[in-house]
UniProtKB/TrEMBL annotation:
<keyword id="KW-1207">Sterol metabolism</keyword>
<feature type="domain" description="Hydroxymethylglutaryl-coenzyme A synthase C-terminal">
    <location>
        <begin position="131"/>
        <end position="362"/>
    </location>
</feature>
<keyword id="KW-0753">Steroid metabolism</keyword>
<dbReference type="GO" id="GO:0004421">
    <property type="term" value="F:hydroxymethylglutaryl-CoA synthase activity"/>
</dbReference>
<feature type="active site" description="Acyl-thioester intermediate">
    <location>
        <position position="72"/>
    </location>
</feature>
<keyword id="KW-0756">Sterol biosynthesis</keyword>
<dbReference type="InterPro" id="IPR010122">
    <property type="entry name" value="HMG_CoA_synthase_euk"/>
</dbReference>
<dbReference type="GO" id="GO:0016126">
    <property type="term" value="P:sterol biosynthetic process"/>
</dbReference>
<keyword id="KW-0752">Steroid biosynthesis</keyword>
<dbReference type="Pfam" id="PF01154">
    <property type="entry name" value="HMG_CoA_synt_N"/>
</dbReference>
<protein>
    <recommendedName>
        <fullName>Hydroxymethylglutaryl-CoA synthase</fullName>
        <ecNumber>2.3.3.10</ecNumber>
    </recommendedName>
</protein>
<feature type="active site" description="Proton donor/acceptor">
    <location>
        <position position="40"/>
    </location>
</feature>
<dbReference type="InterPro" id="IPR013528">
    <property type="entry name" value="HMG_CoA_synth_N"/>
</dbReference>
<dbReference type="InterPro" id="IPR013746">
    <property type="entry name" value="HMG_CoA_synt_C_dom"/>
</dbReference>
<keyword id="KW-0808">Transferase</keyword>
<keyword id="KW-0444">Lipid biosynthesis</keyword>
<feature type="active site" description="Proton donor/acceptor">
    <location>
        <position position="205"/>
    </location>
</feature>
Length: 363
């Protein structure tokens, strides 16, 4: 589990990843026109973290964007804003967008404390990118849920108020709803049927890794119900649960065991290899989904080994806000550009893994 010393806070860890991005990619700060920050770690109820990051941009004060807050989902919404800003403004601005997300997850003493963590992530957004988001294929699920919150009235404290069972069920409800909506949009927009076999890699918001495995098992269960079972290793295990009420599947142990068994081989190829950072850092809140993207590049052997891969993302934030969306690793620009982008991403990912290995182990 990762944590911060008393000389770090959310602004400093976000500034670190942003400074590394600007330096590694040799970004001219005048070419940045948008910067959004996703975080739920507040050190001020009014002043945004983005304002402190502006110190890195010198005389370039013409940069849109502010902080985005909704539990663990704020980073994804900041990413959406950055992507949309580039689509809307590239023709006139010819400037890039940057998204930064970070959090320090701390729980009060007790059973939940070991599920904390800390981390930050930054990404450059622009045209002809190696990772191309699929336009129109965003499915959202937004409701009012009191599963996890940090009230400021009365006695304010750093630790969240958490209702564990409600939070886990809310996550699964959001997953079910966004997967259905995503499949419907893919059918309408691209005239294609989508199931888990349509994607090479599936990434999830990760409060803890066992929950991710259960989430992936649910997607395989939905594929089975939709008649797409050719990729499921033991589909017969799911047959007894075809008529089970949806609410019951969230907690029924027999169902969970069967779904995990039926999806295990797919989980080991499409999900598990990319949980490297999540397992060893813990719940990073906003960056926890995107740590898996870093792991994808760290584990890759070459550009050719991942070119053409389709990625499915599920992002969730308590309260509740969620989305499912997809991307393709493609050579959309000149070949040298793709290789340069891959090299920089690979170097960044390998450096992150090296820092992980260099941590001091405390028994």
């Amino acid at each position: 589990m990762a944590f911060c010393a008393d000389n770090e806070d959310i602004a400093s860890i976000c500034m670190t990843v942003l400074a590394n991005l600007l330096e590694r990619y040799e970004i001219n700060i005048s070419t940045v026109g948008f910067l959004a920050v996703g975080t739920e770690t507040l050190i001020d109820k009014s002043k945004g973290v983005k304002t402190q990051l502006m110190e890195l941009f010198g005389a370039n004060t013409d940069i849109e964007g502010v902080d985005v807050k909704n539990a663990c989902f704020g980073g994804t919404q900041a990413l959406f804003h950055a992507v949309d800003w580039v689509y809307a403004n590239w023709q006139t601005e010819k400037r890039y967008a940057i998204v930064v997300m970070g959090d320090i997850a701390i729980y009060e003493p007790g059973a939940a404390r070991c599920t904390g963590g800390a981390g930050a992530f930054a990404a450059l957004i622009g045209p002809d990118a190696l990772i191309a988001f699929d336009r129109g294929l965003r499915a959202s699920y937004m409701v009012n849920a009191w599963d996890f919150y940090k009230p400021i009235s009365g006695v304010s404290k750093e630790f969240p108020v958490v209702n564990g069972p409600i939070s886990l069920a809310s996550y699964f409800k959001a997953l079910d709803a966004t997967y259905k909506a995503y499949r419907d949009k893919a059918s309408r927009i691209r005239n294609s049927d989508v199931d888990i076999s349509s994607f090479d890699v599936v990434m999830f918001h990760s409060p803890f890794c066992r929950h991710v495995q259960k989430a992936f098992a649910r997607l395989c269960y939905w594929d089975y119900l939709n008649g797409a079972s050719q990729h499921i290793c033991e589909p017969a295990r799911l047959k007894p649960f075809c008529s089970m009420q949806l609410e019951e599947t969230y907690t029924n142990r027999d169902f969970i065991s069967a779904a995990l068994a039926a999806s295990d081989s797919l989980f080991r190829t499409k999900v598990d290899p990319y949980l490297l950072f999540n397992r060893r850092i813990g719940n990073m809140y906003t960056p926890s989904l995107y740590a898996q993207l870093v792991a994808l590049f760290h584990r890759s052997s070459s550009l050719e080994s991942i070119l053409g891969q389709r990625l499915l993302f599920f992002s969730y934030g308590s309260g509740a806000a969620s989305a499912m969306f997809s991307a393709t690793i493609c050579n959309s620009g000149e070949n040298d550009s793709a290789r340069t982008q891959y090299r920089l991403m690979k170097e960044s990912a390998d450096a992150a893994a090296a820092r992980l290995e260099s941590r001091i182990c405390v028994p």
